[in-house]
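Good morning N.,

You mentioned wanting to compare the apo and holo forms, so I went ahead and generated the holo version with flavin-adenine dinucleotide. This is what I fed in:
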Amino acid sequence: MTELLDAPNQPRELVDYNLFTSHPVLVEALAREGAGAAHEHLADCGARFGTAEMFALADAANRNPPVLKTLDRFGNRRDEVEFHPAWHELMRRLVAEGLHTGPWAHPTSGAHVARAAAYMLWAEIENGTQCPATMTYGAVPVLARQPNDFAEWLPRLLSREYDLRQLPISAKRGALIGMGMTEKQGGSDVRANTTRADAAGPSGPGREYRLNGHKWFFSAPMCDGFLVLAQAEGGLSCFFMPRLLPDGALNSFRLLRLKDKLGNRSNASSEVEFQDAYCVLVGGEGRGVPTILEMGVYTRLDNAIGSAGILHQCVAQAIHHCRYRRAFGRLLIDQPLMRNVLADLALESEAAIVLAMRLARAFDRQDDESEAALRRVLTPVAKYWICKRAPLVAAEAMEVLGGNGYVEEGPIARRYRETPLNSIWEGSGNVMCLDVLRALAREPQARDALADMLQKGRGGDARYNQYVGALLSQLADSSDAEARARRITENLALAVQAAILIEHGSPAAEAFIASRIASGAPGVFGTLPTGVNFQGLIVRALSP
Ligand SMILES: Cc1cc2nc3c(=O)[nH]c(=O)nc-3n(C[C@H](O)[C@H](O)[C@H](O)COP(=O)(O)OP(=O)(O)OC[C@H]3O[C@@H](n4cnc5c(N)ncnc54)[C@H](O)[C@@H]3O)c2cc1C
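and this is what came out, ligand included:
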């Protein structure tokens, strides 16, 4: 009997599948990095996050961007953002999963790694919701340094209830945190901030101040509180600013406009002004940068995790497409050149995932000095490299889907538009590379921890040994280091990725060394040497 098909030779949607169990690389990484006990939980997350309903919610939240309501119909200030119900449903599920603060609420062994894996799965589906979740994840350790000042806040931040009601913190069942650093005249160089903070009485941590000024980027403005940088008498300082005052009145900051963004459309990013806004000092006066950077370390980890997740979903969609689509008499997956493209994409995905997961392990070992030192340098390395590779992977995956790849209805376009963002915010590419140089120059322990890690890959492979030898000489040469910082960071990232693959005997190690270590800087995808087991790499990214 002839099949009646409207659209012959088109794949079915890649939905209703287990995002975790279908991804051997992530399954292995979870166990390897110390969170094997969370396997069942991750398998459960993988099934629940991979449903057609979740994909549809993500699409709806991004097709119906938030709307700013500055005034009510009588002209009273509202300063609220209205979201599509899909956004709230996604936020409800994300918070219920503990993806925002789970490791702080339950600091068990492997908690940050397990969360990293789950967060990566979430990143495959929706990314706007990850903005407030990530900022809350990073803010908790900062606020926890002043437990008495934030006694009402901390339990609500650790809660698994998404409470979108605009109420003072005492009446809420759950809460989320945003942050404000960037001003019109400077984002990377926050020392240029002009927003002023004046003590309302005695000064010092936990004391009341008043903020006057603005922030040019202020994402997720419906959060319940914000960490904000401003100039106090003692210098640039960090403040906690609640959205509502204890009596329920709006704090004195005004939402002026929402950004019209390339991607990340489900999430609101606003411009704000403060007029005598109430806030309290976090950390000491003049300690604004180190205080907010403590948050920044976690958000940068999440940038790496998030980009690895988006990148992997693009690769999975490309592989799936080729398993169903025929051209010139054969399935695309059986065309030798397409197999090379898919295998190369899968290899990039594997390298991103092992790096992000290894980095997450350094966050689980908070008391281990060598892991802390490694975290210091590996965080900007991973943030830089994984975020930089993501748009390239997304673009290639889009092409694998042919014309359908370029269409908004498909799975890649939104993800492609999302990919540059993680590279820009929370320390843009150059800023990350300069941070790598700073860590290596100022923290000998970080340099040692990195050298130890690279050493673990040394031994059998002469190409890797030579690469690392040259890299160490490159690091020892400080001439024109700033101008070379991107090359240094890229080489470090590739060496660390290779070291992890070699140390753990990944079947991807040989292809990685041949294509990224032995043959110069990585170029376009689909240029692996012909001896590589293409199929072996592909099934590690998406099992059939
Ligand atoms: C969607 C979105 C949401 C955001 N949300 C927030 C938010 O919630 N809160 C917040 O505070 N900010 C937020 N930001 C702002 C973001 O963090 C900044 O845009 C970013 O830090 C860069 O700052 P800038 O835009 O002022 O650029 P600049 O600081 O002017 O930098 C421009 C370029 O110069 C490079 N550069 C800077 N210094 C050097 C140097 N010394 N050497 C070489 N190159 C250098 C940078 O890498 C960058 O590429 C958001 C941005 C976006 C796009």
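The pocket of flavin-adenine dinucleotide is lined by residues 178-182, 186-189, 217-219, 261, 264, 269, 421, 424-426, 428-431, 434 (CB under 6 Å).

Happy to go through it together on a call whenever suits you.

Best,
F.
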